[in-house]
């Protein structure tokens, strides 16, 4: 089949599967398989595909027709201009997280030009921490996750993108860290979906992405409470905690930060103009009493 014919085939099947943008996704999948820019298809539409590429494409279209995310089919996702390897053990990095990462890179470059220690907690694919390391090379970055399988993906991404120049810890949130370890910045995109909303997620999310990285408990705030309470033990004086938040969670998480004694609480907007991240600094030597976190 020619490029035009195989794209018509893909577009037709994805349309039948009610994929929202069948033409675009048909091209994205072929672009990933052939490692060609989509513009190439318009200038080489009569070019014949080899049998192996054609079969790979047919299988990719079949998987997408079953609603498997494109990133898992291709095994990669672009984030901050970098290609991250992904599989079903890790959440797919989203563009809405990029403004938080850009803010942190600018903050670190401006305030700590000679270097600082950064922890990416609940790292998944490592997208946040590795991106910070890539653009802030003097930083000492650590990645942590409960999932050993996720850390395997993060380690591979670190080896590819920053020559493995960071640390990895496996364990339950901050309990994974060595005693006495402290950081200038702790950043986390924790699970924050309310349990009652899990079944309402898009089919391609609920059927394929890891629930461990999505389920934030009954209120969606379980992980925020723990991180906000425990982070002061691992933050340097006046250290910064940055948290990605879900829709309509900003006020609740800001209140948790305020009650625990964080100050200079700031909101960072995502690409759609919604609050997607909160940052706060901590100067006290001890965290407040656990009962004060609602």
UniProtKB/TrEMBL annotation:
<dbReference type="GO" id="GO:0003676">
    <property type="term" value="F:nucleic acid binding"/>
</dbReference>
<dbReference type="Pfam" id="PF17827">
    <property type="entry name" value="PrmC_N"/>
</dbReference>
<feature type="binding site">
    <location>
        <begin position="189"/>
        <end position="192"/>
    </location>
    <ligand>
        <name>substrate</name>
    </ligand>
</feature>
<dbReference type="InterPro" id="IPR019874">
    <property type="entry name" value="RF_methyltr_PrmC"/>
</dbReference>
<comment type="similarity">
    <text>Belongs to the protein N5-glutamine methyltransferase family. PrmC subfamily.</text>
</comment>
<dbReference type="InterPro" id="IPR002052">
    <property type="entry name" value="DNA_methylase_N6_adenine_CS"/>
</dbReference>
<comment type="function">
    <text>Methylates the class 1 translation termination release factors RF1/PrfA and RF2/PrfB on the glutamine residue of the universally conserved GGQ motif.</text>
</comment>
<dbReference type="InterPro" id="IPR040758">
    <property type="entry name" value="PrmC_N"/>
</dbReference>
<dbReference type="InterPro" id="IPR007848">
    <property type="entry name" value="Small_mtfrase_dom"/>
</dbReference>
<dbReference type="InterPro" id="IPR050320">
    <property type="entry name" value="N5-glutamine_MTase"/>
</dbReference>
<feature type="binding site">
    <location>
        <position position="145"/>
    </location>
    <ligand>
        <name>S-adenosyl-L-methionine</name>
    </ligand>
</feature>
<dbReference type="GO" id="GO:0032259">
    <property type="term" value="P:methylation"/>
</dbReference>
<dbReference type="InterPro" id="IPR004556">
    <property type="entry name" value="HemK-like"/>
</dbReference>
<dbReference type="InterPro" id="IPR029063">
    <property type="entry name" value="SAM-dependent_MTases_sf"/>
</dbReference>
<keyword id="KW-0949">S-adenosyl-L-methionine</keyword>
<feature type="domain" description="Release factor glutamine methyltransferase N-terminal">
    <location>
        <begin position="5"/>
        <end position="75"/>
    </location>
</feature>
<keyword id="KW-0808">Transferase</keyword>
<dbReference type="Pfam" id="PF05175">
    <property type="entry name" value="MTS"/>
</dbReference>
<keyword id="KW-0489">Methyltransferase</keyword>
<feature type="binding site">
    <location>
        <position position="189"/>
    </location>
    <ligand>
        <name>S-adenosyl-L-methionine</name>
    </ligand>
</feature>
<dbReference type="GO" id="GO:0102559">
    <property type="term" value="F:peptide chain release factor N(5)-glutamine methyltransferase activity"/>
</dbReference>
<protein>
    <recommendedName>
        <fullName>Release factor glutamine methyltransferase</fullName>
        <ecNumber>2.1.1.297</ecNumber>
    </recommendedName>
</protein>
<feature type="domain" description="Methyltransferase small">
    <location>
        <begin position="103"/>
        <end position="210"/>
    </location>
</feature>
């Amino acid at each position: 089949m020619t490029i035009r014919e195989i794209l018509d085939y893909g577009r037709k099947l994805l349309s039948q599967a009610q994929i929202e943008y069948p033409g675009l996704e048909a091209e994205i999948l072929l672009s990933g398989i052939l490692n060609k820019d989509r513009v190439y298809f318009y200038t080489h539409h009569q070019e014949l595909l080899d049998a192996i590429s054609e079969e790979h494409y047919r299988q990719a279209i079949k998987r997408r027709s079953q609603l498997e995310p494109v990133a898992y089919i291709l095994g990669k996702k672009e984030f901050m201009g970098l290609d991250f390897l992904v599989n079903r053990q890790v959440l797919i990095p989203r563009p809405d997280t990029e403004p938080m990462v850009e803010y942190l890179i600018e903050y670190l470059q401006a305030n700590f030009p000679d270097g600082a220690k950064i922890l990416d907690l609940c790292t998944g694919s490592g997208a946040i921490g590795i991106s910070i390391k890539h653009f802030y090379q003097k930083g000492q970055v650590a990645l942590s996750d409960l999932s050993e399988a996720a850390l395997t993906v993060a380690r591979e991404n670190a080896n590819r993108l920053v020559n493995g120049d960071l640390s990895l810890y496996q364990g339950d949130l901050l309990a994974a860290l060595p005693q006495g370890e402290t950081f200038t910045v702790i950043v986390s995109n924790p699970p924050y979906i309310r349990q009652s909303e899990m079944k309402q997620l898009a089919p391609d999310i609920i059927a394929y992405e890891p629930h461990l990285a999505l389920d934030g408990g009954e209120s969606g705030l379980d992980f925020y409470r723990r991180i906000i309470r425990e982070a002061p033990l691992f933050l340097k004086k006046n250290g910064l905690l940055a948290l990605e938040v879900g829709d309509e969670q900003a006020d609740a998480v800001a209140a948790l930060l305020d009650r625990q004694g964080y100050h200079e609480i700031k909101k960072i907007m995502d690409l759609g103009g919604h609050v997607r991240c909160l940052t706060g600094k901590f100067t006290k030597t001890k965290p407040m009493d656990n009962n004060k976190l609602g």
